[in-house]
Amino acid sequence: AKRADCRAKFVKFFVTVLKRLKSEFGDEIKAGGPALCSYNTVWLNDILKACKEAGVQPDFISWHGYANDPMQYANESELGRKLLDGYGFTKCELIINEWHYFGYGDYDWIDMQHCSDPKVKARIWTGPRSHNGIHSACFTLAALANLQRSKLDQAYYYGCRHTGSWGFKDEHQVKYKVYYALKMFGDIVRDYPTLCASAQDGTYTLLAVKNATGGKALLVVDYGGSVHNLEIAVSGVDAGAKTSATILDWTHDLEPHAAKFENGKLMLRKNDSYSAAFLITFE
After folding, report:
1. Is residue 68 within 8 Å of residue 139, measured between CB atoms?
2. CA distance 237 to 257
3. What is the CA angle 121-125-131, rounded to 5?
4. Most CB atoms within 10 A, among 14, 136, 165, 214?
5. What strands, in cross-sheet order, belong to the sheet with 259-262?
6. Do 140 and 104 contact (CB within 8 A), yes or no?
7. 266 has which bridge partners?
């Protein structure tokens, strides 16, 4: 009952402020929120219902996303779009204003913030499945690939600090694996700006892209898979296309890697049983 009362007070506050901002500034600004700590249908329903009754429409709704399922954000955006459209808010945008990998079933928030057990701390902050290890990097790449076909209008990776556990480097300026994941995706956006397809199948996430000169590329992310040999059917690429690959895994940071493409099948081999990502180009 106490939580419901607090929610009701916040909803009233949200609608009051939203109406005032929209009446004062109109379309000069975008006003919305409420940056929920996670996607929460109860909160969003109460807020949107109150907005509908008050005759005011938010420009966006927003929430945080800390997860270990790279499809979570796309799935939540489907729910959010359906919810908004049901209230008639078809122009209201969907925003995840914070997102980041969070665990692989090995720890929780309490462990991260307060645990002094060296073994638990090692699982959290070092090693392949840690907060900034290769699983985190491959989750990030898979999530970015899935976002390309989601209903989201904006999504913001947390965070961009240059030091600390939520940034790209540690206190000694050593780059985390996620640095190389974001570098890999940045290279894709820069060199192959046209999206062809995005898909997820089991532990695999795929993103096919091309550029204006006919060059094609395929991002292959194996997030959490233990199989060493990967075989992927590829269409739309000439049989004689020149193929090259780059790998990001626990022991390699965007280094050249062997790739074989024959009879419409792409064959890759992982160096270990951890997550790995490959960027394959066809020229």
Report:
1. yes
2. 20
3. 125
4. 136
5. 229-233, 265-269, 259-262
6. no
7. 232, 261
Q: Indicate the residue type of 217.
A: A
| Three-state secondary structure readout of the chain | CHHHHHHHHHHHHHHHHHHHHHHHHHHHCCCEEEEECCCCHHHHHHHHHHHHHHCCCCCEEEEEEEECCCCHHHHHHHHHHHHHHHCCCCCCEEEEEEEEECCCCCCCHHHHHHCCCHHHHHHHHCCCCCCCCHHHHHHHHHHHHHHCCCCCCEEEECCCCCCCCCCCECCCCCECHHHHHHHHHHHHHHHCCEEEEEEEECCEEEEEEECCCCCEEEEEEECCCCCCEEEEECCCCCCCCCEEEEEECCCCEEEEECEEEECCEEEEECCCCCCEEEEEEEC
Cα(226)–Cα(70) distance, integer angstroms: 17
Alpha-carbon distances, residue 194 vs 124, 148, 184, 203 (angstroms) = 37, 11, 16, 24
Question: pLDDT digits over 194-218, tens only?
Answer: 999 999 999 999 999 999 998 999 9
How many other C-beta atoms can be found within 10 angstroms of the C-beta atom of residue 167? 18
Tokens of 30: 């975008």
User: pLDDT tens, 265-282?
Assistant: 999 999 999 999 999 999
Q: Is the pTM of this model over 0.90?
A: yes
Give 42-95 pLDDT, tens digit per residue.
Answer: 999 999 999 999 999 999 999 999 999 999 999 999 999 999 999 999 999 999
